[in-house]
Amino acid sequence: MHTTDLDKSVNVNEVSHEVYELISNLYPLCRSITGDGLRKTLHILQQYIPLAMHEVPTGTQVFDWTVPREWNIRDAYIKNSAGEKIVDFRKSNLHVLNYSTPIHTKMPLDDLKAHLFTLPDRPDWVPYRTSYYKENWGFCLSHNQLLELKDEEYEVYIDSSLEDGHLSYGEYYIKGEKEDEVLISCHACHPSLANDNLSGIALATFLAKHLSQISPSFSYRFIFIPGTIGSITWLAQNETHVDKIKHGLVLTCLGDTGKSHYKKSRRGDAEIDKAVIHVLKQSNQDYEIQEFSPYGYDERQFCSPGFNLPVGCFMRSPHGTYPQYHTSADNLDLVQPQALADSLNKILSIIQILENNRKYVNQNPKCEPQLGKRGLYSAIGGLTDTKKTEMAMLWILNLSDGDHTLLDISEKSCLEFDLIKKTADTLRQFDLLKEQVAISY
Ligand code: ZN
C-alpha cells in the first residue's frame, strides 16, 4: 500500500530561505492581470518547476467575462517645472495606477490631483491601486509628498500600451498514483507586494518542487493565475474535468508574522476544511477559522454555486486586516523566513493528512481483539507513550466501521493524526484492519 511521509522529507528551515530568495527576485517586477511582468514571473518560476505556459487571447469569452486587452508598461514619471522627476515608476512600480492608459501632457497641480492616489492615514506609504476594467490613468505617491507639491505645471508621462494580446497563466500538473486531484492556486497579478501575492507564489512553487520529487498518492495541479479573471478563465477552460478536484487550497499572505487563518470552503465540512482545522488545532499556536464568504481571493470563483469545489483559503493575516495590505509597506521586510517556514510546515502537515486519510474496516469487530495474544503490545512497546498508543488502537478498532476516516478518529480521540496513522499501519500489518475501498461509478 502507498503511504506518504512527506513532512519528514523536507528541511523546512533551509527551504524557507530559498522561498524568501525567490520572493526577493520576483519583487521588482511590475506584474498585472496580463502582460510581460506576469509572463516574466512565470518564466522565473520555470527555473524551479516545469510550468506549462498558457496564453488566452484578448476577447475570449469566459462565462460572463471577457479576457481584457493586454497591458504593458515601459516607463512613467511626473516631472516638476524644473524638469526633475518627482515620481518615478523606475523607483517603484507601485507609483503607477496599474492598467493606466498612456499619456504625455502638461497640467497644473489642480488637474493632476484628480489622478493622484495617497493614503492620508499612512502618510509615508504609497498605495497600490488598479483600474482594470475602467480606462483611467494615475499615479500613487505618499501623502507627505502630495502635501509638498507646489502649485505649478507638471509633466506627466506614462509609456504604456493597452492592446489585443493575451492573458497568461502557468500550470503544473504532478501525476500521482490516482487521478483524483488536489488543486493549489495562487494569484500572480500584484506588482511589488511581497506578502499579498509573492509569498503564496513562492511557497506554492517550492511545494510543487517537493511533491514532484516524491510519488504522491493524489495528483496535484498548481495554477499561477491573475486574480479573479485568471480563475474565471481557468475554470471556463477546464470545466469538464474539475470533478477530479477532491481538495483545494488558495495560498496567499503566508509570510507575515500574524497568526494563521483558514477560510473554509463553501461546503464548510469538506475534508480539506477538516484537515486544515486539525493541523491548526494541533499546532499549539493561536489561529482563526473563518466561515466561507463570497469575498476574498479566487476561492470566490472555485466556490461559486455552479462549481462549489472543496477549496478553502490558507493565509496568515487576511487581506485588509493588516495595515501594510496593498501598500508599499507590504515589502521584503514584512515577510519573514521563519513565518514562511511555519506556513510551509502547516501546508505539508495538511497534505500529509490528505495523502494518508483513509477508512478502514475492523476485521475483528465482535468485542475487542485480544491484543496481547497477537504480540501487539510488544509491537508498540518501543514507542515512548505506550498508553497513548494503546488508546489509539482502541479508538481505531472501535471506529473503523467503514464510515469513519482516520482524521475523524483523530478528532474524536483527540490524538494527533500521525499517531493514529502509524497505529493504523501497525494494526493493518497484524491483519486487524482492511482498507475500505471506495466504490466509484
Ligand atoms: Zn491583493
Helix content: 25-40%
Radius of gyration: 25 Å
Low-confidence runs of at least 5 consecutive residues? none
Cofactors and ligands present? zinc ion
Distance between the termini: 22 Å
Average of per-residue pLDDT values? 95
Strand order of the largest sheet: 1-10-12-11-13-16-14-15
CATH architecture classification name of the largest domain: 3-Layer(aba) Sandwich
What's the CATH H-level homologous superfamily of the largest domain? Zn peptidases
Largest sheet: 8 strands, mixed
At the first level of CATH, the class of the largest domain is: Alpha Beta
Q: Structurally, how many domains make up the residues?
A: 3
Describe this structure as you would to a colleague.
The chain is α/β, with parallel strands linked by helices and 441 residues long. It has 3 domains: 252 residues, 3-Layer(aba) Sandwich (Aminopeptidase); 93 residues, 3-Layer(bba) Sandwich (Glucose Oxidase, domain 1), CATH 3.50.30; 77 residues, Winged helix-like DNA-binding domain superfamily/Winged helix DNA-binding domain (Arc Repressor Mutant, subunit A, Orthogonal Bundle), CATH 1.10.10. The chain is 32% helix and 23% strand. The protein is built from 13 helices and 19 strands. Strands 1-10-12-11-13-16-14-15 form an 8-stranded mixed sheet, with helices on both faces. A 4-stranded antiparallel sheet has the order 5-4-9-6. The protein binds zinc ion. Zinc ion binds next to loops.
